[in-house]
Amino acid sequence: MAIRLLKSNIKTPVKRQKKATPKKTTEKDPTKNRNSAFFQEQNLSNELADVIGVEKCSRPQVVKLLWAYIKDNNLQNPDDKRQIICDTKLHALFKKSKFFLLR
Q: Region Disordered: start and end of each range (predicted)?
């Protein structure tokens, strides 16, 4: 019993850990992800081509050009920037007078 009490009172030395070595960053091949269908140029509908002014475009480029059109024509609701107020071109494309971005 006395031995058991002595063992429980003895503190074990603290083990020091080595500092973690930083992980090596491997350079990603930029062409690897760009070959997916998401980045391939597609033929656009006539309504969308009228809005952004391009006949063929990739999906990310469509989003960028659509945002540029919205900001250039001041189509965001000043009270709620998530809401887009459609002009005649956007109304022909979305068939709504206004819409929210996240829906």
A: 1-39
